[in-house]
Amino acid sequence: MTQVLEKYSGYLAQYEELEASWEANRLPWLAQLRGHAWSRFADLGMPTARRGNEKWKYTNVGPIANGSFGHPLGLDPNDYIAPDLIAQAAPWQEEWINLVFLDGRFSSSLSTVSLSNGVYAGGVYAGGLGGIPAEHANVFRQHLGQHALAEEDGFTALNTAFLHDGLFVHVPEGAPAPALLNLVFATTDRHQPRVTYPRVLVVAGPGTQLTLSESYVSLTQEPGFTNAVTEIVLEENSQVRHCRLLLENQQAFHVGTSRVYLAQNSSFNSTSFAKGAALGRSDLHCLLDGPGASCTLNGLYLTTGTQHMDNFINIEHAKPHGTSRLLYKGILDGHSRAVFGGTVLVRKDAQHTNAHQTDKNLLLSEDAEIDSKPSLFIYADDVICGHGATAGHIDAETLFYMRSRGLDLATASRILVQAFAGEIIEKVEPEPLRDYLEKLYSGAVSAPGISLGGTP
Amino acid sequence: MPTNENGQQPLLEVRDLHVSVGDQEILHGVDLTVNAGEVHAIMGPNGSGKSTLANCLVGKPEYTVTKGQAFYLGESLLGLEPEERARRGVFLAFQYPVELPGVRTWQFLKAAVDALRQQRGEEEMSARDFDRLLRERAKIVQMDQELLRRSVNEGFSGGEKKRNEILQMAVLDPKLALLDETDSGLDIDALRIVADGINKLRRPDNAMVLVTHYQRLLNYITPDHVHVLLDGRIVRSGGPELALELEEKGYEWIREAVDAAT
Ligand SMILES: Nc1ncnc2c1ncn2[C@@H]1O[C@H](COP(=O)(O)OP(=O)(O)OP(=O)(O)O)[C@@H](O)[C@H]1O
Ligand SMILES: [Mg+2]
Q: Is the pTM of this model over 0.90?
């Protein structure tokens, strides 16, 4: 333990500074949760890529562990930047409920603020942790830290140890579906390099519906470390649509942990879009803990240069009649590297599970590399499960066919790459979000550097 | 610059063409002249090199020309990229059309039409005009509108793919169209529809080269010239009656005749 702490003495000093601040001690139970999390982090530290550590086999977080990141308290999240800057860097519609975090702090000046301090029609709460009304506070306390466990993971422990600001969304039973909740976590050039700990808890009450978008963006070219944790709880018969956009700069380190809990007959639909970060890890776990729950997980990752993007996606079927569909696609260019890992776990009780996971990769360069290792662990006997992974270059026959119709190599390649990604993007809803992704994506691949497999 | 007996420049003039794949020579000196307004049929047994000739003329990378020449309207084709040939008006209906998952027929053909227009110094076509063009051309081959909304050739039946090749030809309006076994895999009705479509696209200023195994296509489209390709050489050329004779006697007859002559 002492050895671990020595390595992370910077974090210790920051932790102690936070503990001494008034904010940290507003809620005693939260202070306690943080304290536990810190001691857990002191035990675990950050993971190391080594043999036998399946979770981190292909991703070395050394650059994060060895980096030194400031955590200045008291950066004012309000009135520091113009709202336009956010609306340019992330999806944005006036009619959405836009909630902005600037350098890790909730910014009321950049956010849509409801008339009654975070409370919307039908008693929906969506706002910072500061003013949670009494009728929502129990739900907050009941779920916070119960799905993303500090116990199990160093990064989650570290995020939880620094939990003092964040976002809570609660749609109580009977409430109408709120407008799209647009969460934007932006970092600026203040005090770089710096670490932020975005934290989100979303609870969709029984029978409710919710659409949520989480964007992580940089308003700076400086390096930084984002350690984000999101917990999403779907109570019976609820439906959540979720979109996660990783759009940080090419210097950034990003570890995003999402834990989704699904009760009976609930359904979770998510799209993960990852483009930015020098080193990115997206860890998503869905626990289907009620009969008839279903999740559809789509993802698109684009890497170039020397980027490293790791998707670690786990689906746990714990109860019968669950359905899961996973389709992730990667487009890899330059010397970049991507990892797709994760499992579908079907527990003994989860009879009649129907699960499928697929990861497909398009390599635009000879030097790009993919490690795709989806796997299945099935302990029930009456299930339908499948999985597959593919990786390949643009097909030479296909390109020739297109060129024979007059399209030049660059246009033909662009159309093919776009079609490859289109399968994911076209499933995104609502339309403004899909349009945003389409534009973002076509900008990203307008001139892919193509190298061909199969051409002599 | 080569000209024909009427003093016109032929659309296509192939002279002593030798083509290899890897280090294996497949065409051993092919000569072929195609004038505007003509329809040629090339017949020959499996593996004789018909597709090699067609693919080589549209610039398929793995076919290497080791000797000979190919002129299109007097310009050497062989140094041009495949897309440059297409933009000048050379078209191949593939024997095995490729599927383009996720690429809509509309988007694909619009991009192709615009590339051809760009070559002629014209502006991109408006979406509305292209819509109209595509709909109108789809009628020529009686192509179901539903298929136009799908990804190019994805999940199409063999016959639908062949029909889609002719639709593409109708939209791109080439001067020289090479049709590689477009009739194979078509049912009787589809064959008639496709053949009618091809006939509608015939004009005095364009030409077609039909690669086929069967007389039945030639019942609908009467060729001006029929050539027999055998082991990488055109061993006999004649009029439409040559196809009938082949149908009756088979390739062994030609092979024996050729062997006897050499
Ligand atoms: N890309 C290639 N690689 C290797 N061999 C090839 C290739 N293309 C053609 N060949 C060979 O060249 C010969 C001629 O092939 P080609 O496809 O031109 O025949 P074809 O006359 O079109 O036959 P079919 O009537 O069966 O379509 C064959 O022996 C074939 O195996
Ligand atoms: Mg052939």
A: no
